[in-house]
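Good day; I would like, with your permission, to put a structural problem before you. A protein sequence and the structure tokens that stand for its backbone fold form the material at issue. Thank you for your consideration; the sequence and its tokens are set out here:
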Amino acid sequence: MRVYKGMAFMSLENMPLGSQTPRVALFVTCLVDLMRPDIGFAAIKLLEHAGCEVVVPPEQTCCGQPAFNSGDRAAAHRLAERVLEQLDGYDYVVVPSGSCGGMIKTHYLDLFSDDPSLRTRMNELAPRVYEITDFLHTVMKIDNVPGRAQGCVTYHDSCSGLRELGIQAQPRALLSTMPGLVINEMKESRACCGFGGAFALKYGNVSAAIADEKIGNIQASGAQAVVLGDLGCMLHIEGRLRRLGDDKTQVLHVAEVLAGELGTEKV
């Protein structure tokens, strides 16, 4: 194993020849790499538990989503082309983020609409790009996870993962395999948390009001923690919770819970 920016990965040349094990490229995402690298390590643990060879391409950068959402298609195109170069050639690409996964799987095709060569390559890659819970549940079909937890959680369906990738049943199915963990569904779990990337910066008051509604629903569920699959939403919800004086409700990434990388068995 080697280490890059805090993330462990296996180089291609060290993989066994003739192995039937799926070779998975983990696209870590900027926020995970810079803010919560433990989520990346949890993703690696889950993928290895499922029987995959995990590679973190060493020169991966931003997926281009901030530039794309801001209307800078030229910058987004350059980043997307670089990401494609890094991720091409693996059996699967797995992303611990619905928003970044949605950007790569769906919006790259739009970005490459004027470049037939890149669009052809992306058409071949897109079906192999998965958000992590979708990959574990749909492709690897795992029925157990390494994590153990005691307590009650509620699940927030982040907008991009839900609406672009159809992520809803998959994380709940995986969480339900954990003995001792109870899922209490909050009211309007599919409603936006108010983050929306640049939206939270441009419309701070509206963003905060939406977050307050989400937090009210989280607290009303009686759960000790809210679990979700997108770090942007995590940071937004947790920041608002703390500003409102709630120091008890935990905000956890689903990969951390499933992998048992929480530092404690109680959520």
Observations:
- The chain has two domains: 2-139, 151-259.
- The first helix runs from residue 30 to 34.
- Confidence is low (pLDDT under 50) at residues 1-18.
